[in-house]
Amino acid sequence: MFSSSGNQPKHLLFAATLLAFLLFVSTQSLNAQTLISVTFNVPNSYGLGGPPPMSGPESGATSANPLFGAADVWNNLPTSFGILTKNPSWSGLVNSKGETTRISFSVTGTVLPVNLYPYGPSNYGSDILRSRWIAWNSWNGPVFGADGPGESTTIRWTISGLRPNTRYDMFVYGAVADISRSFDMTIEGRTINVPTYIYGSPIGLGGVYFAHIISDPWGRISGRGIGVGEDLTAQNEANWPGFQLVEIPTRRPGRRF
Predict the structure, then answer these.
(1) Which of 53, 101, 140, 189 could join 149 in a cystine, given CB atoms 3.0 to 4.6 angstroms apart?
(2) Domain containing 149: what range?
(3) Domain tally for the chain?
(4) What span, in angstroms and rounded, lies between the C-alpha atoms of 115 and 80?
């Protein structure tokens, strides 16, 4: 009579190896889905077209953390050019492969979507990420510009639908404009000044890097964009063109990568 008892250890070893491989592939796939790249799509109303949608890796973020370099598909979030917008939110953000996720992004406050492309295409057309942004902390004085008073001086924002209690790294981009200005971004008690660069000048990394952010037990990361200086004109306007967020894989004790 044929007995399989002698082959059992081999079968068990094969099954264990297969299970470990499937778990590894699954983990890698999940990690690949957690790179989220966000900018704002602000179609202008001048009939002059504008920069195409943002896609592909961005050199500044990739220099800060190579994981950001896996960016392919971006979320070009729809906004209305020159229209004061209260509490905008976007759901179903896509990952770097263009797959829809449960991740959402919301802003609490009144912002003004801006697209500087129609004012100088030759200056802004080469930087499609930084030439469009949401703005706040400006034009609330007695001499009105843009769309008049109403912008918030500080905004709050939340990214939800993330893995709970998980480490993420985030790169916050600065804009390119005709005036050098800045705003403060605060995330989990850390505040970093985000500059707006003058077009035609070196921009270095082009943003700031927040490492080791931990999502809360509900899978959320929140922060504040704080206007710097008076909000009477565009001199102290806060300009935020977008961000990238990536999950950092957990290194298990005793496991080598």
Answers:
(1) 140
(2) 8-247
(3) 1
(4) 10
